[in-house]
Amino acid sequence: MRAEIGMCFDRAFPAAAMPDYARRLEASGIEQLWVIEDCFFTAGISLAATALAITERLQVGIGILPAVARNPAITAMEIATLCNIAPGRFHPGIGHGVQEWMGQMGARTPSPLTTLDETITVVKRLLAGHEVTLAGREVTLDRVQLDQPPSIVPDVVAGVQQEKSLALAGQVADGVVLVEGAGPTYVNWALDRAGRPDGFRVVTFTMMAVDDDRRTAYGFVAPLVAKFIAERLPAFRVLPFFDEVAQRVADGGHEVLLDMPADYWTEIGAVGTMDDALGHVAALEAAGVSSINVFPGDEIEIAMGQLPDVAALAAR
Asked: DSSP characters for the chain?
């Protein structure tokens, strides 16, 4: 399987940068752009609409729309509208959202799993053109049907990380978005939890740092990787060398990661030489990933500087 290569638009990037960013990605041969919607930064729907409107071939995804931030009927309307503006180019993702943020806006659900289940189920049925009536635990709809369902119905992927949520995704979603250090081991672990349904799509967000000198490349991302290890994020916790590296980081800080073996780094991201980055992509493809998207640095200038390296991955 050949994965498509994309880049993310970080939540902290100025919204006004989107037109130039999207155009540059498309001109560089990069195949996808994934928008990050985090509270309370920039909004996914409007950014995606902008990117789709000013490009012709670029695939645009949102990773992710929090399930409770919008009524599911409105979520389906927004998705259908974008799908009809750019048929086959829009890829929606729906997830739990950060529960602390949901609480800040009075939308925290007592059952995130049930809410995600009902939301994705309803959204998919509406996008397929069905009339939906549901008196669920968290979602209530009365004879709702889209006037303009999408001409090409998109896959709806779930932005989830933990075991129960991955199992749910395998039952109700068309795939998953895996973030924050998702490497081949975590992809296989996640697919096992989801039950490996037929046609299940896997999208990953990955960090990238490339230099002719490996240690220099490692140094760009070592503080972030050390933070993720200390937080015991799922993508790191399942790695066979996690306990070893976690102890080393606890004892010596992020600098110890500069001496971590190159094959450890291949599990974590497209980090090292360009050959190492290509090895990470190949390992994800072998694990079944169909979309690999570089999560750039948190400043737009850094992201623009990464474009040539990401384009090289897309042109492999």
From this structure: -PPEEEEEE-TTS-GGGHHHHHHHHHHTT--EEEE---TTS--HHHHHHHHHHT-SS-EEEEEEEETTTS-HHHHHHHHHHHHHHSTT-EEEEEE---HHHHHHTT---S-HHHHHHHHHHHHHHHHTT--EEEE-SS-EEEEE--SS--SSPPP-EEE--SHHHHHHHHHH-SEEEE-SS--HHHHHHHHHHHT--TT-EEEEEEEEEE-SSHHHHHHHHHHHHHHHHHTT-HHHHTSTTHHHHHHHHHHH-GGGGGGS-HHHHHHH-EEESHHHHHHHHHHHHHHT-SEEEEE--SSHHHHHHHHHHHHHHHT-
Per-residue pLDDT, 98: 87
CB 289 within 8 A of CB 204: yes
Measured torsion, CA atoms of residues 145, 107, 157, 47, in degrees rounded to the nearest 10: 90
Cα 196 to Cα 27: distance, rounded to the nearest angstrom: 35
pTM over 0.85: yes
- List the domains of the chain with CATH numbers: 4-314 (3.20.20.30)
> Could you say which residues of the chain have pLDDT below 70?
none
Q: What is the pLDDT of residues 237-252, one digit of tens each?
A: 999 999 999 999 999 9
